[in-house]
């Protein structure tokens, strides 16, 4: 595969002046725009990358430097976080809402996702606050509040069509990952197991916590079992606990992520849906 880079700009309502400005800053000699909302600038100088991507963000466009000629079909494994990445909510916050304690749980969640708290300790602290809640609250969250994020169905459908395996790794709970796996045909799913006794949450998690390092290990184990090279793996996440797996993947994508994650990922999607990933590659 060519190591030459192409700057891809996703501009749903492109302004020609903006695109000319970006092309000039990117030192891009060739502009290809087979689709009006996807502009490919071949030969863009990656040295200008940070300034160019910042300019694109200022214009409200998602953009990324990708290997020229790289297709989405070149990936063989998609690894995704669940909460606020594949789906629209933080499940634990919505469970807490049913108990009337969402503000205090959501505040801990936010700090954990920014990387300000130890993830495992923060998870145990939040789960402890859910003690006594009936298991039916989990079903209520799944049926009434949980939705796939925009573009997720298109992304998963493309994976199935192209034979790309899917791995869902979550610091959330198996109650939700298992149902998503069954409902959307995912290949693998891993998360934390809530302890439930007599139909009520005990406030404890069973087994080891799926934290940042566990997510990375699961990516590596699945990749190795499939005999893949790192560049054949693409991973998507939004929180600090996703960074190790994003770094381990050949391509790491930050999706509407915390600033630190967007800054460190190979690709940051801040405006579009998950189907933006498909449009970045041929």
TrEMBL record:
Q: In which pathway does it act?
A: Amino-acid biosynthesis; L-serine biosynthesis; L-serine from 3-phospho-D-glycerate: step 3/3
Q: Which GO terms describe its molecular function?
A: hydrolase activity
Which EC class heads this enzyme's classification? hydrolase
The highest taxon in the source lineage is Bacteria
Q: Cross-referenced Gene3D superfamilies, in alphabetical order?
A: HAD superfamily/HAD-like
- The positions making up the signal sequence are none
Q: Which residues form a coiled coil?
A: none
Q: Answer whether the UniProt record assigns the keyword Magnesium to this protein.
A: yes
- Among its keywords, does the record have Magnesium? yes
Q: What is its EC number?
A: 3.1.3.3
Any idea which UniProt keywords this protein has? Amino-acid biosynthesis, Hydrolase, Magnesium, Metal-binding, Serine biosynthesis
Question: Required co-factor?
Answer: Mg(2+)
Q: Which reaction does it catalyse?
A: O-phospho-D-serine + H2O = D-serine + phosphate; O-phospho-L-serine + H2O = L-serine + phosphate
Q: Which family does it belong to?
A: Belongs to the HAD-like hydrolase superfamily. SerB family.
- Protein's recorded name: Phosphoserine phosphatase
Provide the species name.
Chromobacterium vaccinii
Name of the gene this protein is made from: serB
